Amino acid sequence: MEDDLIEKSVESLRHSKYTFAFTGAGISVESGVPPFRGKNGIWSKYDPKVLDLDYFYANPLEAWKVIREIFYDYFGKAKPNPAHSILGEWEQKGFLKCVVTQNIDNLHQAGGSKKVYEFHGNAQKMICTKCSYRFPADEVDFDKLPVACPKCGGLVKPDFVFFGEAIPSDAYAGSLDAARNADVCIVIGSLGEVMPAAMIPMEAKRNGATIIEINPETTNFTNQITDYHLKMGASDAMKILNDKLFSN
Q1: Which of 34, 154, 169, 186 is most deeply buried (CB count within 10 A of its CB)?
Q2: Catalytic residues
Q3: Where does Zn(2+) bind (predicted)?
Q4: Cα separation of 58 and 126, whole Å?
């Protein structure tokens, strides 16, 4: 049965004029980045209030201590895995139009992807809450918390979406454009539980796209919009698809 689903997925990809990938935490688990939700997720160990915007403003030092531990002491060591790299290669070949990701770990860019719509922002960038100055996270001295803006001295936060913040408008618009133009959407490692991000594959389906889902688990997408569900890890599935598409 799995072989049949793989062959059908490959045929859909071969005939596609516009393919994009929609990725969630599952693609980065193989790089050592734990998911936020679930039994061993980040929020089983930390209180999610540290990413609540109001809490952050009221308690910047306490919030920053936890943010540093989660996103910079640990996440910063993660490297792209074969699934990230294959998506980057597909884009370079003109086979993949873009990646829409819920992840903030920068691993798609590290894996070679150029056109990435980051629905929830990027932890490798910082933004000043006072003057909006943006700069790379690797310029920050994390021994001095909370982080201060090098331009105006204002409070700095990671440039990803906190609870209470809006989705970046350019990422939202680009993601919707992909969903409305695609004839294939590959959903990798997303449970479909976070809104409004989960609307993107659903919008693609509404516009006639074939949905190929790569996830060992059954998700909110599986029985609603998925056409072909490959119950595999991200790297294993992407290696198989890549070999079948480009081995000749």
Answers
A1: 186
A2: 120
A3: 128, 131, 149, 152
A4: 19
CATH number of 34-77+123-160: 3.30.1600.10
Q: Is 128 known as a binding-site position?
A: yes
Annotated binding residue 149: yes
Q: Give ranges for CATH 3.40.50.1220 in the chain.
A: 1-33+80-120+168-248
Select 1-33+80-120+168-248's CATH number: 3.40.50.1220, 3.90.550.10, 3.20.10.10, 3.40.50.720: 3.40.50.1220
Give the pLDDT confidence score for residue 3 in this predicted structure: 85
pLDDT at 248: 58
The annotation status of 185 as a binding-site residue, yes or no, is no
pLDDT of 71 reads 86
98 is in an annotated binding site: no
CA distance 148 to 64: 11
Determine the pLDDT at residue 247: 77
In the chain, which residues have pLDDT < 70? Answer: 1, 35-41, 43-44, 74-76, 248
The encoded tokens of residue 76 equal 């910063």
Residues in a beta bridge with 127: 134, 157
Residue 35 to residue 40: CA distance in whole angstroms:
8
Q: Which two structure tokens, joined as six digits, stand for 189? A: 């490692």
CA–CA gap between residue 92 and residue 129 (Å, rounded): 36
